[in-house]
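Section 5.1 Outputs to date
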Amino acid sequence: MTRVYVTGMGVVSSLGFGRKAYWQALLEGRSGVSPVTLFDTAQIGRNMAGEVKGFRARDFLTAAEARRAGRCSAFAVAAARMAIEDAQIPAERVAGERTSVVLGTTMGEANVLGELQKAWIHQGAEAVDTAKIPRYGTTLLPIHVARAFGARGIVQTLPAACAAGNYAIGFAADQIRAGRAEVAITGAVEIIEKLEFAGFARLGAMSPDRCQPFDKHRKGLILGEGASMLVLESEASVVRRGATPLAEVGGYGLACDAHHITRPHPEGAGSIAAMRQAITSSGLTPEDVDHINAHGTATPNNDSVEALVIRKVFQDRRVPVTSIKGMIGHCMGASSAMEAVACVMTIQDGVVPPTMHYETPDPECDLELVANEKRAMPVDIVLNNALAFGGYDAVVCFARPGRLPRGAGMAA
């Protein structure tokens, strides 16, 4: 079994572009949440989000790429280009049949579909801009990335709700372990779109002002957007080019609550299974885990159930927990990929980012929360939780290179 390493990361976020700027903002506890400017929110009743501002596609994409790409695809290509540059991997090693592209998303270029529908309804079919049609479709997201870098291996989109990022990372690592690829560009992307924004507001799931994970008075989530891409490489590829890996991808766990379309299982059935699978398939025990990057959406049910799950998996052991959604919002399908960068950087720097806006402890969320201030501590093993609508549960383990036993990542 080959080891799978993270060698580069790229980020487009409301906190900035590139992993270094993004990571520095997280450690400082900065907020990327601001009033929405992408569309009119007057009739929605909510107007705050982690919107990416100041992004210009031509800063990261060629003129041809920018013409083909919608906002979502442009985010993905930009983050992938940053990740490849960060990995310092030669272009010829990315191009070819041994490089896969695996991306997660929830709605993809949903804004393009909205524009097409609006034109059709108000002006008739002849008013539909046919140039926009090839921009729509979640299946096209990894195609834009593959074309940009000449990757001709496995191309896959995983629309696994708000666990899509972890699903994509796990699937991409599997392709390398199975010998189907040597390099994978993987992660997830999401944009804020009016229908999605209004839908969450109508569900009563959105806070009017800020996201307070695990706080007793949490009022709901704040939507965010962005893209996060990781370059994964086989052990042989890393050795061959003398690269220095940032982290190793360990095992991962997938499960389904099979309970409710929006509410998690009250006993956390699927979430417990996913966390235990991630630990066991990494060749570890709960005692080995140093830190948990929680899903932590700041919705009442999700946070209390996730806290219950963590206590059941780790029993009396209080593992430091954080949620970064108070700073970037809930980036839907991209959320766990955005958080994967934080997991890897936590291992790199030995610093856990804070859970911001935490004010009042909740007895139902009795955790060792890293609240409002970063915490310096040695970290070798991190779990990245994604516990999504519909009961999509996905947990990925990241580790310091060399810390996991060989064979980590095999099915538990």
